[in-house]
Specification:
143 residues, mainly alpha
């Protein structure tokens, strides 16, 4: 669950790997292939959501292609320059900077950046729900 708060840690995939290893070592007695399949689908959904949440939020708040490009570049720059905090702030800053470069007013660019952050928050909330559901199901099935 720490990876939901610290974006650099792949939290949901780690939960799936943990469930898979448990199932493997216990010969799939309590954690079955069906549960692993459901967990895999939730993991894939979580990864897609994580990668598209910021962009979707920015688009909903009026970002142009410049803002989307800025979000993608900001994610990479943020990761390399600021670690986990950079992964949160980089896409927002990238969206704002590139929206201004693309000719949008500063106020409009900030709105797009806010949308980017809203998408990140929404994605994080869904990831928390998915992670908790997977952990609760795992504990319920094991005990």
């Amino acid at each position: 669950m720490a990876g939901i708060i610290v974006p650099i840690i792949p939290s949901i995939p780690l939960i799936w790997i943990g469930a898979f290893l448990y199932a493997l070592f216990t010969h799939f007695e309590k954690i079955t292939w069906m549960i692993l399949l459901i967990f895999a689908l939730l993991t894939i959904f979580s990864i897609v959501l994580e990668n598209l949440g910021n962009v979707y939020g920015a688009k909903r708040f009026g970002a142009t292609k410049w803002g989307i490009i800025g979000s993608i570049i900001g994610t990479g720059v943020g990761f390399y320059m600021g670690g986990p905090i950079g992964l949160i702030l980089g896409p927002v800053a990238g969206t704002v900077v590139f929206e201004v470069i693309g000719g949008k007013s500063y106020k409009g660019a900030l709105k797009s950046g806010l949308g980017n952050f809203a998408g990140f928050l929404g994605g994080s909330i869904v990831k928390i729900i998915i992670g908790l559901a997977m952990i609760i199901i795992f504990i319920w099935k094991v005990f």
